[in-house]
Amino acid sequence: MGNFIAQSMDDLPTREQMLAMSGLEFMQGVLDGTVSGPPIGPTLNYWLDVVEEGRVVFRGAPTFETMNPMGTVHGGWYGTLLDSCMACAIMTVVPKGAFYTTLEYKINITRGIPLGMEIVAEGLVQHAGRSTGVANGEIRGAEDGKLYATGSTTCMIMRP
Q1: Where are the transmembrane segments (predicted)?
Q2: How far, in Å, CA of 101 to CA of 32, rounded?
């Protein structure tokens, strides 16, 4: 995610720094490395690839560490990628002085992702109001284009 990944709590942006930017500016900063990316990205092997108003794309690939005891990619990996792309898409429409949090999300896994296969996780805003945002997401194979999972989320938009 960008060129700068947070290594400690001190690397993460402060609340004041976040509120001084629009959500789109914040996400563009993560992409270009002027705002630290979250440490969960390297942990789960995914990174920010595209930021546009109402749209965010992550890329990644499941590693051995993301497997469940049955030898398949854990559903939490799918959920984390979809939560990230959908919620970050909503972040791109959050105005300066506001922030958001995920209220709920749902995923549907349509097929197993082979270990190490690169995927594209895209989140698209469906609705952005004063207090809520709704987005949908998909995980597709980067090379095969096959659909591996879908999701939907509702986020609460708040002003301090």
Answers
A1: none
A2: 23
Q: Which structural domain range is residue 135 located in?
A: 9-158
With contact defined as beta carbons under 8 Å apart, do 149 and 86 qualify? Answer: no
Structural element, H or E, at residue 152: strand 147-158
pTM for the structure as a whole: 0.94
Long-range interactions of 117-120: CB distance < 8 A, separation 24+:
117/61, 117/62, 117/141, 117/142, 117/143, 118/59, 118/60, 118/61, 118/142, 118/143, 119/59, 119/60, 119/61, 119/62, 119/81, 119/148, 120/49, 120/57, 120/58, 120/59
CATH number at residue 53: 3.10.129.10
pLDDT tens digits along 38-79: 899 999 999 999 999 999 999 999 999 999 999 999 999 999
